[in-house]
């Protein structure tokens, strides 16, 4: 809850909302009212036609699946590292760097003149770090010290996007306004929350399927090799793969640049 509050608060300071007068001619009240009217089908078309919004939706879903895989750390710590309490340590290694990153996100956004470069560079760092977490995890029974170190660096790299993704949604809404002259702010945020719920459901289902396929049995003190191998894939390999995909998506999310070009053309 605290992290969520920080994310939403910092997002406000990460973006400057332009007045409508700088986007289009808003002197005609009838035109304004017409621009704000649309039905459900039109809203769906507007959202589907905004490629940047679709990128964010996919990213949200991937992040939820990522979270579900990271939650498998409790099983990883118990059956592979042999100490369930280590999961709490890994959680701190994620949350503390994330909070630190959130604090500095607004400053970094301002310094780098926008979100794009910061998000791509920071998530690239996160991807490399998650790869190194996997390498450390496959060292014998797992090099806990290195795993903790690279887990913390990965969380630090994921922080800026966590802090400015709501601002990115606002930029996507602006893109729809500039291209279609329709305000879909509320609908866009609501559909994004649906993406979070969809991703959360998928993440929970996928982890359950993978555990079942690996013959996990909670009644066993020692899990079969098939389960141990699957836990390594779920906690070490899949999070890295998801970070890599998200980094690629963020590298294509040049919504700020697109908005600048559209405003200049007005």
TL;DR?
The protein is built from 11 helices and no strands.
Q: Considering the protein shown, what is the CATH homologous superfamily?
A: MFS general substrate transporter like domains
Helix/strand/pairing category: mainly alpha
How many strands appear in the DSSP assignment? 0
Q: Which architecture would the CATH scheme give at its second level? A: Up-down Bundle
The secondary-structure element order is: HHHHHHHHHHH
Look at the structure and give the CATH class. Answer: Mainly Alpha
* Rg value: 21 Å
Which range best describes the helical content: under 10%, 10-25%, 25-40%, 40-55%, 55-70% or over 70%?
Answer: over 70%
Instruction: Please report the distance between the alpha carbons of the first and last residues.
Output: 42 Å
Q: What characteristic shape results from the CA principal axes?
A: globular
